[in-house]
Specification:
Elements: H1 2-24, H2 29-42, H3 47-54, H4 61-68, H5 77-84, H6 87-99, H7 101-111, H8 115-126, E1 135-136, H9 137-147, H10 151-166, E2 176-177, H11 190-196, H12 212-225, E3 235-239, H13 257-267, E4 269-270, H14 271-276, E5 280-281, E6 293-297, E7 306-309, H15 311-319, H16 323-337
Helix pairs in contact: 2-3, 5-16, 6-8, 6-16, 7-12, 8-16, 9-10, 10-11, 11-12
């Protein structure tokens, strides 16, 4: 009798597990898309936009793989910068700066952002518009939402992408981007597009894919809205004295931009104060005699490069919360400025 009871209980339990797994089983991508379309309709998007946007939507396993892939080896700034800012890219950046100088100057005067930083960001994001990604943005965002780890974030981007299409800035066929849905020559996510994209030439569209006036104006508008000051540069590499207290720098891993900004406010000092602590230019000469504040950052660790970061550094960290990325933008912008482009 006991064995029969145990057996019956085991069968009941296994049946319960099977039923529970069936309930929790992930829907197919096609079923998920049908639910997304219904949600879009409930949000007020037009049936025509929904139909055209999702008509040829595709699941991209490669996008999921790219999202999960981890770097195979640890970089240092000394190995990263030569690859991100090679001599050919510096030469190309200087040529593009000269080629678009009239437009860049106009954009700079309107938004208060130096042209060299616009060109540096452009070059590092998409190799001056050459590598924008070839994923259909709706398919990429749908794939990442379905994958599930950051569903809320990617659904928010999906609604923003539908808004962009509904406003007529780009056609669904031409709305291309990265595997994560970053779009155009400046790689804006759809929500960034809605917040910062600009119609730079007054044609009624914000075309960050093919219109240089829109591309440059949108990048400058982004930086302006995030506190850019064209009286300042980005920062400078510095030399620290023997026995320097490295706790005066912003901790490398703060966990979020909000925490990073709090650390900035706690550690920033005037250039005169850094000078008094023994901080010098890399050639050993005094820091500039200017009424400025700066924070100290170590992109690697205390034994690596040290930088005094000015307020514009914060704007670049809003663009991409990465010391390496900001360092590459800064170094490329400096190589555009020095020697002067003729």
């Amino acid at each position: 009798m006991f064995s029969k009871v145990v057996l019956s209980s085991a069968l009941l339990f296994s049946g319960f597990l099977a039923a529970n797994e069936a309930v929790n089983e992930k829907p197919s991508f096609e079923t998920y898309i049908e639910a997304i379309k219904k949600e879009a309709l409930d949000k007020g998007y037009s049936p025509d936009i929904i139909k055209s946007s999702f008509e040829n939507v595709t699941f991209h396993q490669r996008a999921v793989s790219s999202d999960k892939r981890q770097p195979e080896k640890v970089e240092t700034l000394d190995t990263y910068l030569p690859k991100r800012v090679p001599n050919w890219k510096i030469e190309r950046a200087r040529n593009e700066y000269k080629k678009h100088q009239a437009l860049l100057t106009k954009v700079s005067e309107k938004y208060g952002v130096q042209p060299r930083f616009i060109v540096a960001l452009w070059g590092l994001e998409t190799n001056f518009g050459k590598i924008m990604g070839n994923y259909n943005v709706i398919s990429a965002l749908s794939t990442m939402a379905y994958e599930g780890r950051r569903e809320a974030f990617f659904k928010k981007q999906l609604w923003a992408a539908l808004t962009i299409l509904e406003e007529g800035h780009i056609s669904i066929e031409n709305m291309k981007g990265s595997w994560a849905g970053a779009m155009g020559q400046n790689q804006f996510m759809p929500t960034s597009f809605l917040s910062y994209a600009v119609d730079g030439d007054g044609d009624g569209k914000k075309d960050i894919w093919g219109n240089y006036a829109d591309v440059f104006s949108s990048m400058a508008n982004y930086l302006k809205n995030e506190g850019w000051n064209d009286d300042l540069t980005w920062g400078r590499q510095v030399k620290l004295p023997e026995g320097f207290d490295t706790k005066l720098a912003i901790p490398k891993n703060t966990g979020s931009r909000a925490n990073w900004l709090k650390a900035w406010s706690k550690t920033e000092k005037t250039l005169a104060q850094w000078q008094a602590l023994g901080v010098r230019r890399t050639d050993g000469t005094n820091l500039p005699n200017a009424d400025l504040t700066a924070a100290l950052v170590f992109p690697d660790d205390e034994s690596g490069r040290a930088y005094l970061a000015y307020d514009n550094y914060k704007s670049l960290m809003h663009w991409n919360l990465s010391y390496y990325f900001v360092s590459s933008v800064g170094h490329l912008s400096d190589r555009i400025k020095f020697p002067p482009v003729k």
